[in-house]
Design goal:
Strand 7 and strand 8 (about 140-150) form a beta hairpin. Strands 2, 3, 5, 6, 7 and 8 form a 6-stranded antiparallel β-sheet that branches. This protein has helices at about 5-10, 30-40, 45, 50, 65-70, 70-75, and strands at about 1-5, 15-20, 25, 80, 85-95, 105-120, 120-130, 140-150. The mean pLDDT is about 95. By secondary structure, the protein is α+β, with helices and mostly antiparallel strands.
Length: about 150
């Protein structure tokens, strides 16, 4: 866990790899719950028999489910002491280069892409890469945009 104690430390870390989160297994039950919550019940995610005969040989997690893991995964990688509030401001350049089969373990790596001062805090863009254990390509690469209020 990288801990920043001052805004200047955050700015100085732009371009420096911050490390990785722990591994987290994305189980089929989580995929099913996400499908139920969002209404995205496409067979490739929730129909075990049909997905087994499909292009990936088993169900895969929704890309947006993987994206939804980013706040929890990045919280394991770095934090800014004194930040009283972190607000999801958006996303840039989201890609899903490889599928994430249900039951797979993932972890995230992060690099600060840019840090700008804004009234009351920082505007932080972090490039996050989510990799699957044993995978040859990441299952998600995204730039998260966060406002940190100090």
């Amino acid at each position: 866990m990288r801990v920043f104690t001052a805004p200047t430390e955050v700015s100085a870390a732009v371009g420096v790899p911050l490390g990785h989160s722990g591994w987290r297994v994305v189980e089929q039950a989580q995929v099913d719950a996400f499908a139920e919550a969002t209404g995205d019940r496409q067979w490739i995610h929730v129909d075990l028999a049909r997905a087994a005969a499909g292009p990936f040989g088993r169900p895969i997690a929704h890309g947006y489910l993987v994206l939804g893991l980013l706040p929890a995964l990045t919280a394991e990688i770095y934090r800014v002491e004194g930040a009283r509030l972190a607000v999801n401001y958006g996303l840039d350049r989201v890609r899903f280069p490889a599928p994430l089969p249900a039951g797979s373990a993932v972890r995230a790596g992060a690099v600060l892409h840019s840090v700008d001062e804004v009234p009351g805090g920082l505007h932080v863009v972090t490039e996050v890469t989510v990799e699957r254990r044993g995978g040859d390509k990441p299952c998600c690469v995204a730039r998260t945009v966060t406002r940190l209020y100090l």
